Amino acid sequence: MNFHQLAMGGGQNDDAIRLLHEAARTGDWICLKNLHLVISWVPLLEKELKNLQPHENFRCWLTTEAHAKFPTILLETSLKVTYEAPPGVKKNILRTLESWNQNWFGQGNDLRSRVIFLCAHFHAIMQERRTYIPQGWTKFYEFSQSDLQSACETVSLLVKAGESMKNPGSGIDWVTLIGVLEQAVYGSRVDNEFDSRLVREYLAMFFKSETLEGGRRKSGVDIPAFDLPASTNMADFRARVDQLPDLDNPASFGMAPNADRSLQRINSTKAIASLRQLATGGASEGSHSTAVDIKLWRTQLAPLFTIWENVNKGQLSKLRGIDIRPVTPDDSPTVAFVLMDAAEASRLGELVTTALTTLQKVVNGTALSTPDLQVQAKALIRGEVPETWASTWPSAPEEPSLYLQGLAKRIVALKGDWIRRVQSRDVTGQPVSLSDFLRPDVFLNALRQQTARRLAVSIDNLHLVSTFEPHLLRDDSSPLPITVQELILEGCAFDESKRILVEGQRTSSLVSVLPPLTIAWMSKVAHPERTASSARAAGTISLPESQL
Known about the structure:
This protein is an alpha+beta fold. The chain folds into 4 domains: 3-76, Rossmann fold; 89-255, Helicase, Ruva Protein, domain 3, CATH 1.10.8.720; 274-430, no CATH class; 439-548, no CATH class. The chain is built from 19 helices and 11 strands. It has helices spanning 13-26, 42-51, 72-76, 89-99, 102-105, 110-128, 145-163, 174-185, 193-206, 209-212, 234-241, 259-285, 290-313, 333-364, 371-381, 387-390, 400-423, 440-455, 528-536, and strands spanning 3-7, 29-33, 59-62, 462-467, 482-484, 488-490, 492-495, 500-503, 511-513, 517-523, 540-542. A 4-stranded antiparallel beta sheet has the order 5-10-4-11. The chain has a 3-stranded parallel beta sheet with strand order 1-2-3, with helices on one face. α6 packs antiparallel against α7, α13 (290-313) crosses α14 (333-364) and α14 packs antiparallel against α17. The protein is flat.
């Protein structure tokens, strides 16, 4: 018996089929690796496997990463083994050290060994920080073992180049090493500016002479968390790694100490969604009986019927006689926004009312079900908001009951308070709650456009600033200051005595409420010194435009 293996992804599809037939005929073992790279070819492989008449000793091993389009029938007919690497920087570095051998690690002098270990530690930080998405990285980056191998090869070449120079004690060319890792290895995978700055910062923290000498950063983030031994023996480095804690502390990544609370909340949300899907999946997807569907709809949708019925009888019933006039060319950008947002909220309210009323009639047996109604009912039963309900509300809650309550709140605010503001021609004179809008980012852009018209400048020359001291923005450079209330902070707290934002501690609450905040768009060209002084004032925040 022989064992054959083939890594897929490089055009070896025909070779894989040939090898499969040969192994099935002779009774050999075959392993086809990385099937997730040729996911469109896997159905053909599945067909070939079904048509085989293999030898009794034949075995076929398939390896793949999790993929949504992997054939489910092939999974069901296979014996499955799942491997998931233990989380944590400590476990990550130990896995790397186990994959190395002493002869390779100990080549050359101790400088090479220490810098190569720095590469392993840096690689572990890059990978384990993905646990805290979106706080750690904005998205998942595939930092792989090949990246670490490229980094180690670069270190070996630079150390060898340094030894061939006339002054071999000059050390390693850190600038070249950082440049290669940033431009060609790790940084080449990153496509977000914030993440790119993060990679550059980590590279500057790791790869420098002070790190080899045991220097420490004044910020309190120790990289690495111990002094590197001046040795070429891998066991000395392993002993230091064993001293690291088994569980990572967000502060060791340079993140807020309470960042793990956000991670726990995300994980709990995923777990609840999975449990809900398991509880309702069989009945909502596998059953085609109308009686079963009706029974399920009556049980699962009754709370939603009650919520919306109470809202319609209470808050929304008082607004039925209010008409929303069309937008005219003479309307200011903020007025036009309020009218369009109110019209959209009213449209969504009518859409939800029609859908839930019809679903209730179907449950009661007075109306017939349609494919569209079935799609909406299945989404609601799974605890999801139908796509047609959330398509024009980007920040809509994902849970149906919260969606209905949030939509009702916005309809009341827009058709009540905000329409009255439009009629009285005083849209921005009173405090603003951004949670009244379906699209608060569009409101800020409308305010930006209106400010640009008053200052007669380009909107690109405006900068959004905010302060807890309203008098700082009451002048000609900021003609449209508005007071924003009911803002909620996550990950930090507000110090009332100093009127500044402070980093959240592990014992602080998950969220905190800000006092009223004054914001305004200011000209960066006409008053650069005014904008800068406002941003430096006590309790003033400068908001990046990319977050709008």
